[in-house]
Specification:
Distance between the termini of chain B: 14 Å
Strand content of chain B: under 5%
Helix content of chain B: over 70%
Radius of gyration of chain B: 20 Å
Oligomer: heterodimer
Radius of gyration of chain A: 22 Å
Number of strands of chain B: 0
CATH superfamily of chain B: Formate dehydrogenase/DMSO reductase domain
Structural class of chain B: mainly alpha
Number of strands of chain A: 10
Shape of chain B: globular
Strand content of chain A: 5-15%
Order of helices and strands of chain B: HHHHHHHHHHHHHH
Shape of chain A: globular
Number of helices of chain B: 14
CATH topology of chain B: Formate dehydrogenase/DMSO reductase fold
């Protein structure tokens, strides 16, 4: 894709950025960007301050650049042409603003009932006044390469698929919830058959509660005690959307472009570049579960 | 307690239990307090409680017919009836816990043997067959069949409580469960509670004018005492090792057990009523059948407290800090207190166990196959 070399925010973008920084980084420039703020540190020395900006955003506003969503969409389409994919998600915690749009978009996409959540965003306050900050950690299913939830299933209703997504067969699951206890990220929840309109005035369910959803590429309707009611449920990277050439809903809906998704089998893909950065980490690495979700910190 | 009082208590238990079962089928699990962050609650604890009782009762029959402890041989019908009844109650209780009860046979039709749960179900099944065969042998007067069934069942009665412990112990995510001592704890805990239950039943529901009665009760009391002391030793290992340096998730979880809001489950129900009082009674009055019987009752029934403390505290510890506030729902909570509905289902299981044991004993009595049962 040579025609995009000048504008991509990935590796090529990094090259551009380095060149740019080498050329323009100076105290004068820093002063401009920082609004003329006085540089006080270690007076007398030449201080270089870099412009404050997001690492994958535009280098200069006037430069044309490609939205990461457009790039990921293009890479997704290319990945689907390949026989096998290695789906990976990267979440940049520095970009996440804690808007919970991904949580809501996921719930809407999958028509999630009360008590079932695939992608909550953990909010933590770090430090004490005056040094206080917030950390936001979206927590989808980690799609572990060594998933502790899979071998515990007594009926083989969940498995690690070739593309790395941990699937559940709703029609086989007996609802023992052993997998819920086994997940170190508590990424699985049980569908207890609750409805949003339970205990509210009015008659019956709202139309949105009766809409079908399409997890794992099948049509499901939560009706009475039929699956997925009674089953373990979890994030599946929106497999049904991937099958249609669409990015996961959490990725699409992220207003801060903090969630990246793609095929790690393609070394030039955005996610491949991101997961090999030194600031890429995974939750509970010490357990050896090899999660497919990376966090940039 | 006379027979009428017994029937009245049983009727109350059965009615409460039937209401619970009715609610279980009609309201699904709306009324249960467990959720997705504490997926296993009272019913799972009750299940392993009954499973342990079954194993312990079976051991009494094994001691008599396989290891030749003559004093215990006449107790085999009673012990096997209790073993069968408790196994039935265990399986029914955990069946109620399933999200899809109608798919329970998937465990037989498409088992995955990497799962300790699959192993456990298959071991239960083999074990249940030996219980039925042993009882059939007693009914038909074929003691060779009983002995053979119990001999085959001897390794099973070691493995299946162990497998129940391994079901928890193999879960890496649960720091309090993930311990090599768990299968051992489950094995000896089950044997202790089951032998104690047979001790209670033998003391109060067998013929006191039988010449072997005093010695039999004395022996059972001694075995129960030894097992109780052994269990305390294992429990000391379970608690002291993770707590010694007062750091880590296990320490915090165990502190919750000892000094959390449900401290009385450990100190009062388990340690005082389930251990200290029975040990005192058994040590002080070893030849008093009433004291031994009540000691057996306390040691057996209060073991539910141990099971609750094995199942729940580990799950109360959040896997990810802050997760509970990320998405609020009553099913996404780290607080758990069994509801009356859950207790009513347990009442059904207890009533079922009593009814099953009574039915088997009544049947064998009618066939005049029992030597000692009243």
């Amino acid at each position: 894709m040579p025609e995009n070399n000048a504008t991509q925010p990935g590796t090529d973008g990094l090259e551009n950025r380095r060149a740019f920084l080498g050329k323009f980084a100076s105290a004068v420039f820093a002063g401009m960007v920082l609004g003329g703020a006085e540089v006080k540190a270690e007076e007398g020395k030449t201080t270089l301050a870099l412009p404050s900006r997001s690492p994958d955003g535009p280098i200069r506003p006037e430069l044309e650049y490609e939205d990461v969503l457009v790039r990921m969409q293009r890479e997704l389409e290319a990945a689907l042409e390949r026989p096998i994919q290695k789906w990976v998600m990267v979440i940049d915690t520095r970009k996440c603003v804690g808007c919970h749009a991904c949580t809501i978009a996921c719930a809407v996409e999958n028509k999630l009932p009360p008590g079932v959540v695939y992608r909550p965003v953990i909010e933590e306050q770090i430090g004490e006044y005056p040094n206080v900050s917030w950390r936001f950690t979206p927590r989808p299913c980690m799609q572990c390469d060594k998933p502790p939830c899979v071998p515990v299933c007594p009926v083989g209703a969940t498995w690690k698929s070739a593309d790395g997504i941990v699937d559940i067969d709703y029609n086989t699951c007996i609802g023992c919830r052993y997998c819920l206890t086994a997940c170190p990220y508590q990424a699985r929840t049980s569908d207890f058959g609750d409805h949003w309109t339970d205990g509210t005035p009015g008659q019956g369910q709202m139309p949105y509660e009766e809409l079908p959803m399409f997890e794992y590429g099948k049509e499901w309707k939560r009706d009475g005690h039929k699956s997925p009611v009674g089953n373990a449920r979890k994030c599946h990277f929106c497999r049904h959307r991937l099958q249609q050439g669409l990015l996961p809903q959490c990725t699409t809906s992220c207003i801060g472009r903090a969630t990246f998704f793609g095929d790690a089998n393609d070394p030039s893909s955005l996610v491949s570049q991101l997961i090999h950065k030194p600031n890429a980490t995974r939750l509970k690495e010490e357990l050896g579960t090899e999660p497919r979700v990376y966090y940039l910190v | 307690m006379n027979r009428t009082t017994g029937w009245i208590l049983f009727a109350i238990l059965a009615v409460v239990g039937l209401v619970g079962v009715f609610l279980r089928f009609t309201s699904s699990r709306d009324l249960a307090a467990y959720g997705s962050y504490i997926p296993w609650g009272l019913w799972v604890a009750t299940y392993i409680f009954f499973a342990g009782l079954s194993a312990g009762a079976y051991v009494v029959a094994v001691l008599g017919h396989v290891f030749g402890v003559e004093k215990l041989k006449p107790l085999a019908p009673l012990a096997l009836a209790i073993a069968l009844a408790c196994l039935g109650a265990a399986l029914v209780t955990v069946w109620f816990d399933l999200g899809h009860m109608e798919r329970v046979f998937n465990v037989f039709l498409r088992p995955r043997f990497t799962s300790m749960m699959a192993w456990m179900v298959w071991l239960y099944t083999a074990y249940a067959i030996t219980v039925l065969l042993a009882l059939y042998g007693l009914w038909r007067g074929n003691l060779n069949l009983t002995r053979m069934a119990l001999t085959i069942g001897t390794p099973l009665v070691v493995f299946y409580p162990g497998a129940a412990g391994a079901l928890f112990g193999t879960v890496v995510a649960q720091s309090l469960w993930h311990s090599p001592v768990f299968p051992i704890l489950f094995l000896f805990g089950g044997v202790l509670s089951g032998v104690a239950l047979v001790t209670f039943a033998s003391a109060f529901f067998t013929r006191r004018n039988d010449p072997g009665y005093p010695e039999r009760i004395h022996l059972l009391g001694r075995i129960t005492l030894g097992l109780a002391v052994l269990y305390l030793l294992l429990e000391w290992a379970e608690y002291s090792i993770p707590m010694w340096y007062q750091v880590g998730h296990e320490f915090e979880a165990l502190m919750g057990v000892l000094f959390g809001p449900f401290w009385f489950v450990f100190w009062i129900f388990h340690l005082l009523l389930g251990m200290a009082v029975p040990i005192f009674l058994l040590a002080r009055y070893p030849r008093n059948p009433v004291a031994v019987g009540w000691a057996g009752f306390l040691a057996a029934s209060m073991f539910l407290a141990v099971r609750l403390n094995l199942v729940i505290p580990s799950q109360v510890q959040p896997q990810l800090e802050g997760l509970v506030n990320a998405y609020r729902d009553r099913r996404l909570s780290y607080a758990y207190l069994p509801t009356l509905f859950e207790w009513s289902v347990v009442a059904f299981s207890v009533a079922l166990a009593i009814a099953m044991a009574y039915a088997v004993i009544w049947f064998l009595n009618r066939e005049k196959k029992l030597e000692v049962t009243q």
